[in-house]
Amino acid sequence: QVQLVESGGGLVQPGRSLRLSCAASGFAFNTYWMHWVRQAPGKGLEWVSDINPDSGTTYYTDSLKGRFTISRDNAKNTLYLQIDNLKPEDTALYYCSNQFEYWGQGTQVTVSS
Questions:
Q1: What is the pLDDT at residue 55?
Q2: What pLDDT, on a 0 to 100 scale, did the predictor assign at position 111?
Q3: Nearest-CA neighbor of 55 among 36, 68, 74, 38?
Q4: What gap in Å lies between CA 55 and CA 53, rounded to an integer?
Q5: How does DSSP classify residue 14?
């Protein structure tokens, strides 16, 4: 069955960095666009970024460009999200998804001093 398992979240101070991972299984990972979506406390889902199957094309929501970097390793069936210069407003549950067919359980990122 399809599984998407996020990891790498945690409690971090503002200005620090995190790399989130999403381990995928049960589908042809190297043929799917992959997405990161987040949900801040008390707010709706916010699309963050996506990447095409061969990593040649990436997109980001405008407000996050420059601090967020999406990448993937098709040999490891893993999706990544590097977040630099973390801000308190980045506090959210971060989900990965394969073209919105399936979603992981999310990994919590909390940015606080």
A1: 81
A2: 98
A3: 74
A4: 6
A5: T
